[in-house]
Amino acid sequence: MENTVTSILAFLEFSERLKYELRHSWVSNGRQERVAEHCWHMALMAIATYQYLEHPVHIERVLKMSVLHDLIEAETGDIPFFEKSSRQRRKAEREQTAIKHIRAMLPEPVGQDTYTVWQECEAGMTPEAQVVKALDHLEVPLQHHRADLQTWEEIEYDLV
Fold first, then answer.
1. Angle formed by the axes of helices 35-49 and 59-68, nearest 10°
2. Are 26 and 50 in contact (CB under 8 A)?
3. Which end of the chain is least crowded, N or C, by CB within 10 Å?
4. Do the Cβ atoms of 17 and 74 come closer than 8 Å?
């Protein structure tokens, strides 16, 4: 049990990075958004909307995916999808390495469950993953519209 607790504490220390990992978005008070804030907001969006979906989803699965979908950014950092760089070209590879590292960090069965949920979300094949992908794509423009227009990058004018 001591190893389990130690592993969980190490994982929580690692995941705390999401509280200071900055995204390309800004919040309405003029500071840059953090990855943890984005994930939290998606989870709130899921709670507020899932009962109105045309097809039912398992909210627990949607919430897990909302919280975990950007967990890899604690290791890889945030890479906006419109960025043209070597980081973007290596993004999928780096994310797979990061999620394997996270799986190994956690005790079983939590590590495997985290890995499986993240992979399911990435694949986008289940109704729950599709809802999370939609929420992810919706949260970004909602947040952008709350931020000062001067915080937008030129490419975002057409995207948002």
1. 170
2. no
3. N
4. yes
